[in-house]
Amino acid sequence: MSTFIPGGSYAKTSKNIKSTLFCQSRKRNQSTIPAELDLTALSQANVENLDGYLVNQPGSASASGYVPGGSYTITSTGEVVILSALCQKRDQSWQYSTLDITHLSTGKTLSNIDGVLTVD
Fold first, then answer.
1. Cross-referenced InterPro entries, in alphabetical order (predicted)?
2. Residue 39 CB: number of other CB atoms within 10 A?
3. What single string gives the DSSP state of each residue in 48-84?
4. Stated pTM of the model
5. pLDDT tens by residue, 46-90
6. Are 102 and 81 in contact (CB under 8 A)?
7. Mapping DSSP to helix (H, G, I), strand (E, B) and coil, where does residue 10 land?
8. Cα(36)–Cα(82) distance, rounded to whole angstroms?
9. Which of 3, 63, 85, 103 has CB atoms 3.0–4.6 Å from 17's, for a disulfide?
10. Domain range list for the chain
């Protein structure tokens, strides 16, 4: 699994697990736009802001927990990493759930509690 996806028992009863970085990125003309980058398949990241768009470049930059490193932090603000998944409920139905993992320490694990992603 990706470096940017926490471990835990939730993975057994969840599908379409996705980790996404969101922020506001500055463009060359100094305006800012909402930006995002799918982190789901990344084992390492070196994120760069290319005129407001986040791009993963070759190499690795120091991550802070589940927030990837890279030069984008110089020209971007409000970095948030959201984990999302379809989680199975006790009645066997599926429910979409999200969890902000921006400040989650890498040692913590997650569970699926009746369709809700929860920190153990």
1. Cyanovirin-N_sf (IPR036673)
2. 25
3. EEETTEEEEPSS----BTTBPPSTHHHHEEEEEEEEE
4. 0.93
5. 999 999 999 999 888 888 999 999 999 999 999 999 999 999 999
6. yes
7. helix
8. 10
9. 85
10. 9-119
